[in-house]
């Protein structure tokens, strides 16, 4: 196989990202949630450790979504007909996304719950 340049490898990786975003509604929803979480991180001035956990949660969700998409494509190619192993592969990949999403939700609650409650309390004090 011919050696490919870094540029080509990078372009293929970006094409993979674009394919995932175009074809997977869940990936678009998770990307939007990630953008909102990053804006919230700046808005609430979260700590360096909180940033690390937030970015880790985002990376885990996006990576598992992309791997899920890749596994779905390979399964559809290899087994377009119904097969218990095709089901096992797709369900297991979906399970990985679910675990990453649960981790992300818990991380988001732990990071943003206190600052959101504090902001709401300050707003109430201002209004009363
Ligand atoms: N070839 C197959 N054989 C057996 N079961 C399958 C097969 N293809 C899909 N399934 C079952 O249908 C479910 C949904 O598969 P599908 O390919 O529609 O994923 P999807 O809805 O696109 O998933 P996602 O929402 O993650 O994009 C799988 O999790 C699996 O349980």
How does this structure look, described?
The protein is mostly helical and about 130 residues long. It has a single domain, classed as Helix Hairpins, CATH 1.10.287.3610. Helices cover about 90% and strands about 0% of the residues. The structure holds adenosine-5'-triphosphate (ATP). Adenosine-5'-triphosphate binds near residues 72 and 87.
Summary tags:
single chain, 128 residues, mainly alpha, Helix Hairpins, 0% strand, binds adenosine-5'-triphosphate, Diacylglycerol kinase family protein
Task: List the topology elements.
Elements: H1 6-23, H2 25-44, H3 48-78, H4 84-127
Bound molecules: adenosine-5'-triphosphate.
Which structural class fits the helix and strand makeup? mainly alpha
The number of helices is 4
Q: What spatial form do the alpha-carbon principal axes imply?
A: elongated
The CATH top-level class label: Mainly Alpha
What integer value in Å does the Rg equal? 19 Å
The tally of strands reads: 0
Q: What would you say the CATH architecture is?
A: Orthogonal Bundle
Ligand inventory: adenosine-5'-triphosphate
Q: Assess the beta-strand content as a share of residues.
A: under 5%
Q: How many discrete domains?
A: 1
Order of helices and strands: HHHH
- What oligomeric state best describes the polypeptide chains here? single chain
CATH topology: Helix Hairpins
Helix content: over 70%
**Average residue-wise pLDDT:** 96
Largest sheet descriptor: none
User: Unreliable runs, pLDDT <50, ≥5 residues?
Assistant: none
The termini sit apart by: 71 Å
Membrane topology: Multi-pass membrane protein
Family: Belongs to the bacterial diacylglycerol kinase family.
Enzyme class: transferase
Pfam families: DAGK_prokar (PF01219)
């Amino acid at each position: 196989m011919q050696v490919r340049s870094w540029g080509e490898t990078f372009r293929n990786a970006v094409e993979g990202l674009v394919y995932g975003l175009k074809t997977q509604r869940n990936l678009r929803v998770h990307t939007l949630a990630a953008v909102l979480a990053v804006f919230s991180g700046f808005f609430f001035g979260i700590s360096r450790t909180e940033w690390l956990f937030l970015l880790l949660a985002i990376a885990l969700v996006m990576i598992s979504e992309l791997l899920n998409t890749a596994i779905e494509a390979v399964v559809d190619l290899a087994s377009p007909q119904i097969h218990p192993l095709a089901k096992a592969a797709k369900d297991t990949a979906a399970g990985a996304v679910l675990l990453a999403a649960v981790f992300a939700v818990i991380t988001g609650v732990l990071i943003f719950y206190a600052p959101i409650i504090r902001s709401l309390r300050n707003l109430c004090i201002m209004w009363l």
